[in-house]
Amino acid sequence: MYHKEKSIQIKNSASALYNNLCVLRIAPRRLTYFTVVHANVVNMVSASWDGLNYSHRQLQSKEPNVATSTSLIMQAAFCVLTSRDLLVVTSQKGIQMYESDGSIMVYWHALETPETPTEQAVFARGISGVWENYICVGVSSGAMLVFDIPSKGSNITLSEVLHEHSESITDMASECSGSQECIANLVTADDVGNLCVWKSGEEFQLLNKIPGFDMSCSSVKLWKGTVVAGYGTGQIRLYEAVTGILHAEVNAHARWIYSLDIAPFSGLLLSAAEDSLVRVWHLTMTPETNSVEIAHLHNECVTDTQICGAKFCDGDGYAFAVTGYDLSEIIRYVQS
Amino acid sequence: MSVRTLPLVFINLGGEMLYILDQRLRAHNTSEDNSEKVMNDIVSTLFSKSFMDELLKPQKLYSHRTMKTVLTRIAHTSIMRLNPASMDRLYELMVMAFKYQVFLCPRPKDLLLITYNHMDTIREFVKDTPAVVNHVDETHRKIIEVYSSLPEGEFQLLRQTLLIFFQNMHVRVSTFIKNKIQNPNGRFVLTTSGPVPHGTDVPGLIRTFDNKGKEVRRSEFPTGGSYTSPVREGSFELHGQRVLRLGLNMYTVDHPEETHTSKTHKFSQHTKGDDSPNLLAKEELNLLARLMGSMKVDSVPRVETRFRINLFNTDQEEEQAEASGGAVGSSFDVINIQAMQDEQAATQLAQIAGQFEEHAEKPETHSVNKGDDLLAMMDDL
What we know:
The complex is a heterodimer of chains A (about 325) and B (about 375). By secondary structure, chain A is an all-beta fold.
């Protein structure tokens, strides 16, 4: 179904962090951006579609005007909003927002860190752009920061702080089908597997809370009102977002799942785990019976590698890219 | 990232160090008495209450240089001596072994079982000295108290922090290659077969439910691997069957060449270091000072002759390794903090170094940077 294509070499190897690959397709310029986190650096590669040009850039996690600071980065993700795209980088010190090509930092938000280190680590993790012009970021305390993003410029403001999770946020995702009909447009996940379903707005509304089973949910997606969640046990679960009804449960991987992705136009699902396997699935919705089904399509094994990021490169799922711990390349696969 | 890594780092790296030293001591036909003394001295320093209390404070994991300096100091609280080249090789072996264990750890929580395996074996080494066994037991109880209740997500964060620390290290260890747990390119073998971790179901099953929660269909999919049910869970108590074999002694007495290492040809690039080293180095120096200060050192000068342990086959090999400048930190392509540019900090460290000088005799140093780099001086202690 898929075959391996030429890999993209990156400047350093990927760190073992959840969802450690982000892809942004810039159709007008026939380019795709990839971001991979290595310790305190974000490696950005801009790849032309003809495969001839690659340019690299590295972003460090730095507080502005503080020469000495550098902290470990937890995640980097592109947020696609109606009026603009931003690259958000979360670290132990705070949250940075850049223009999507990584050229200019437009916003810095410092996390509150206690004077003396406490037993609980402090960091930001979990990033999502939400309709219409919000960016949500999770914090290790379980808090969620909601930022209001203007259509251009750097006048970004903190709109709300939400306190529904009591454990560290792991990942969050917005409704990716493009449909305006879905009531819920954001799902957030935490380290004990609790899922919160939200409706965005001036004041975010909590629509549903799906309890976890004491196992970290490391990656989550939301598509056509269905939450797809990946867990540390290697299981994938499909829930109806607003009601919390469990549609399906898959014993998908033998180790901790690190990344999930959905190709919104085709309903293809990608799952990747520490067990060195990437799996491609297909989701089908049957509105009449209000059922969701998941079928397995394909496996790829990245030998001896604990995978930490896997993303489709386009909305149909024609191609996908993979990163692994200690690997200095982005591996690509294309449909045969 | 996690602020609770240090106790586990030191117990596991310390454990690996003891496994290797034990093998080398026997290979050198060291007397029973001397061997026992070396093990007892190192174990009692490593597991001393003051040192462990320092480690248990929430703090971040610093560079390899700091870890190596402290571990060298611990090794030298015994009557045994290691030249810088041997210490470098020892550190490489220790770190690669721990990296292997952390990488293959089935569940993040199993990091504790790996740690307990090390502690169980260490207890065996010092079983004839009850006072030292006591130190180990006390530490074990402390670890159980602090770590047992942590959720899996926290352990995974701890594991991820350790994996960043080990990143880009691909030193080939001959015993690993021989046992087929490491590839010739330095990367560890990850199989897609065998038992799944406790709490995970064997992959391959899809269950579909209706709106009432009733299962309406089951189907299977090909997993591309051959997985089996989990084995029984190991014990997290003070004593018990750990079941997991990671963390047990991988070296045997009969094959000293097992501790041979070789670097892979392709060196990964240096991560961009911090632009302004001084302040960051200060934080790290503070940790170093606290750790060194918390180590119990005999104030009475020892009368016994010290003896040297060699991690190479011959003294000549060791000298060659040192002369080639391969020693002192250059083999590690990890985040390198350029310390020692701050004169005040350098003086502070000189004072600390002075406190631990047990005798007037200064060991010979081959290092060209003698006097320039105080941390290198401490490596010679």
